[in-house]
Write a structure and sequence with these properties.
Rossmann fold, six-stranded parallel β-sheet, 10 helices
Length: about 210
């Protein structure tokens, strides 16, 4: 079970971006007379390919201008992140103190990943060590993104620990054969019997896990 590298999700794992992004999408939907709470948007949004999220919204709310909303969301996301984004508590200290090889694997586009990492001061740590689903054309819960990330580290997936805050992300990691740390407050109860799954609420708990399995 020993691991030799760590793969990090970005949104909701290293950076507290998901609620910001969900709030932005809520505001844009409100401009088109669709009223959802941030939590309702998050339920659709977290860990899901954005195109699929929008497909579901357009199916449930006929008449929504898909392309217009996507373009508005993309244009407004990066300035919002640059202004308001914060790290997840303890993330920067943990990453900078981690001696194992590490990379980022995210469903987001590279521009967003790099903006997030730069804003919280982690971009230098992951220079040349970022895998975007848009570039490999495979989104979580597909294991392909995780396989690419492991390859970037020169490792096999079963030699890696994936740190994830979303159910699709956990599914991707387990399907790839990696050890998976389910981070944060997400309900991961469906995975608790899986031998490769490890729930961690905080980066302090993650540190203990990494020490145990590396």
């Amino acid at each position: 079970m020993n691991i030799a590298g760590v793969i990090f999700d970005c949104d909701g794992t290293l950076v507290d971006s998901e609620r910001l992004a969900a709030g932005l999408l809520r505001d844009i939907l409100q401009e088109h007379q669709v009223t959802l709470t941030v939590d309702e948007v998050l339920a659709r949004f977290r860990g899901v390919q954005f195109a699929l999220c929008m497909e579901g919204l357009c199916r449930d709310y006929p008449g929504l201008p898909n392309i217009e909303i996507v373009n508005s969301f993309r244009a407004r996301t990066l300035p919002l992140l640059q202004e308001k984004l914060e790290e997840m508590p303890g993330a920067v200290e943990f990453v900078r103190g981690l001696s194992l090889p590490k990379c980022v694997a995210s469903n987001g586009p590279r521009s967003k990943i790099e903006t997030c990492l730069s804003t919280v001061g982690l971009l230098d740590v992951f220079h040349g060590l970022i895998v975007s689903a848009y570039e490999v054309e495979a989104w979580k819960p597909s294991p392909v993104l995780i396989e690419h990330a492991a390859d970037l580290l020169g490792l096999k997936p079963d030699e890696c620990l994936l740190v994830e805050d979303s159910i699709p992300g956990v599914q991707a990691g387990l399907s790839a054969g990696a050890q998976v740390a389910g981070y944060g407050e997400t309900d991961f109860s469906e995975f608790v019997e899986h031998a490769n799954f490890h729930p961690v609420k905080t980066f302090g708990e993650l540190k203990v896990l990494v020490q145990r399995i590396s």
